[in-house]
Amino acid sequence: MTSERREETNLYPKATVQEAEKRFGPEIEKRVIVRFDVEGIHFWTQAPEEYAILRNEHGHIFHFEVQIEVGDSNREVEFLHARRQIMARIVGLFGAGSLTHLSNFGSRSCEMIAEELGNNLIEIFKWSIREVSVFEDQFVGGRVIWK
After folding, report:
1. C-beta separation of 87 from 22 below 8 A
2. Which ranges constitute the DSSP H helices of 10-137?
3. Cα–Cα 20 to 30 A to 110, which of 8, 32, 56, 90?
4. Confidence label for 122 from pLDDT (cuts 50, 70 and 90)
5. Strands 30-42 and 103-104, bridge-based pairing
6. What is the Cα–Cα distance from 69 to 56, expressed in whole angstroms?
């Protein structure tokens, strides 16, 4: 298929910023989204009796999603750089996160991990963090939203 043919069949042409503002108003939000996984452990010291097993250290694959608000559509925050910096902060705050060195989240819940990471990223990088989500094994988790 030629490039001309592809353009004809494009159902969603790119809108310019001006077109987007006409359609949605000037209040559009742009976000860079970074996702990654970290192998780690945590525990819940005050777990009720029916979940007593959670009082012991146990492992998960923790799935992270960090959303950073940007004003510029052209790599104001570059994806790969942001991912590397965020993962470095995980190591700095909680330890490694590889198969041989687990991140140790201690007694923190997913919400606590998300809040601590988000606040640290704001402080260190001055990014406009809007949301940080942390999931255990992709099924359940917590989200913190900065307004």
Report:
1. no
2. 17-24, 79-94, 110-125
3. 32
4. very high
5. parallel
6. 37
Radius of gyration for the chain, computed over Cα atoms and rounded to the nearest angstrom: 20
How many separate helices (H) and strands (E) can be counted in the chain?
4, 5
For 42, the token pair is: 């945590």
CATH topology of domain 25-145: Tetrahydropterin Synthase; Chain A (3.30.479)
* pLDDT tens digits, 83-118: 999 999 999 999 875 556 789 999 999 999 999 999
Q: Which residues of 47-68 are buried (b: 16+ CB within 10 A; e: fewer)?
A: eeeeeeeeeeeeebebbbbbbb
C-alpha span between 78 and 82 (Å, rounded): 6
pTM of the model: 0.80
What whole-number distance in Å separates Cα of residue 134 and Cα of residue 60?
A: 11
CA–CA distance, 103 with 137 (Å, rounded to integer): 14
CB distance 102 to 39 below 8 Å: yes
Q: Is 136 helix (H, G, I), strand (E, B) or coil?
A: strand
